[in-house]
Amino acid sequence: MKTLLKAARETKALKTRELAQLTAIDQALISKFESGSRKPTKEQIIKLSSILEIDYETLMIAWLKEKILYEIGDEHFALKALKEAEEELNYIRIASPNQKISKELQLLLNEIDALKIKLDKFRQFDSFRIAQALELEYTFESNRIEGNTLTLRETDLVINEGLTISGKSMREHLEAINHQEAIAYIKQLIEKNNPLNEREVLSIHNLILRGIQPEDAGRYRQVQVMIKGSSYMPPQPYMVTKNMEDFYMWYETYKSKLHPIILAAEMHERLVTIHPFIDGNGRTSRLVMNLILLQHGYVIANIKGNYESRMQYYQSLETAQTQNNKEDFLLFIAQIEKESLERYIGIIAQ
Known about the structure:
mainly alpha, 434 Repressor (Amino-terminal Domain), Fic-like fold, 2 domains, 16 helices, 69% helix, globular, Fido, nucleotide-binding
């Protein structure tokens, strides 16, 4: 790996001092990386790969190889241990096919991780008013996806001024108020470090349908449903409880093994595919996704409710549901998160 780093830096005609400025990594550390006397962290690998334009997969393989060799050295049982580790890794890939990430998606994840590192430097400039404005936009867009006709300004008046908008239904008013309260609830879960489990998901859904369909709020459906405009047919009601048990088991198994963006997108897709509720599945799934993103220090992935964005969202979901191909959906969510990060940084870094 040390050869890769030095050759790439020299190819770009950069001095170690210049590379240090571009990556925000100490110059002495970069020299040690190139001499092999010090190993970079994964975050530093992401930065170096991006700035030096080294293929991420190539650099990661070299980095992992050196880590493995350093750890096992010339241990007598090293080869046998590696063989058993390979068998276990193969099992994990079979159990979770989405562990295999395309090059396009990996590059996008690298860009997102670089943005998150940048965001962390500006955390001190976070403010309640910025968060409040962005959460209001999220409520507006998430409800707009589901057909709510309140404008952003009207949503603000309903939530923050307690006004009633002439010509708008009571349901639309409640959808705005409920969604904003659901955001506050997931933030409380994060502050208290509460785990994501069945009780919390049902509580989120209960808030979404509170006062709208109280008999169905926070309860799994007991009837068959269809998704308007989609050829996908959700599971029969008698399968919902078992599917949800599998949903939580999957989360517990992979919550520490997947990239947070992939984990959040997977949980969104899996929940909305089970479609466990009579209504409010989309909003609940997006809130669960954003709960996971916020838990890991990312920002709310705000999917827009305009026609083009909504159609891309629905089509990528349907492809995942009917063709067992989640690539388009994972790319879609990753792109949304990247754009949300870029906007957030642009606001607080001014």
